Amino acid sequence: MADRNTPESFTLEQWRVEFNELAVDVGDIANLPASIDGNAVTDVIEAIAEINTAISTTGIGLAADSGTAETLVISDTLTINGTANEIETEVSSTDTITIGLPDDVTITNNLTVSNDLDVQNEATLASAKISDLTSGRVLLAGTSGEVEDNGNLTFDGTTLNVTGNVDVTGNITLGGNIIMGDADTDSIDFNADVISNIIPNAAATYDLGATGKEWQNIFMTGTLNNDLGISLSFPSNSGSVATEGFSVAMGIALG
Asked: How far apart are the C-alpha atoms of 141 and 11, rounded to whole Å?
């Protein structure tokens, strides 16, 4: 409402116009409430005084998710504190407070995400629980990198179980005892060369072949030796088979 200065020379009509304009600026007195903050008011001046008193002494209520509710009066300063590594606050202009997240956010308790969580850079997790995975299964990177598991690949902390085929490219080093196959219907196919000795774990215990499952041809050089010190050697070109301790003449030609 603008200041009004009226000269003493105003006529009655000019005073009437000035008064009406003043009434428009102030508003209809009939619209004033009967009381403000419990105190009766009868004119504009009283209303303004009561409002000022209410703001200065009664204040406005201040409450949050936790803590004790307080009253903020006109002489108080409202301070919004952030939490280290969780919430940052900044007075960004005369009448604006900006509340946001810092570059590094620390969450000490649980974080519940209802939809997708998009992490642009690396994430370090002390532990993680994914509700749609099954205990004991090995994790795989599935479609579009989604973490998933499969009942054909399990690990109980001691034993790795694979149901299906295993295709390995590269070298394999296995420690401990090795069992290949669980029935005589299983088979082992050697496509590679053997580059080491084949030595049984105990003497006079294991056979090479069996009745009805004999090996066919044996290609060798050197001698055949048994644990009694008897050896069987073959001529390099032709002749008889010779043994230590006795001899057997055989009409064969070797080579």
From this structure: 93
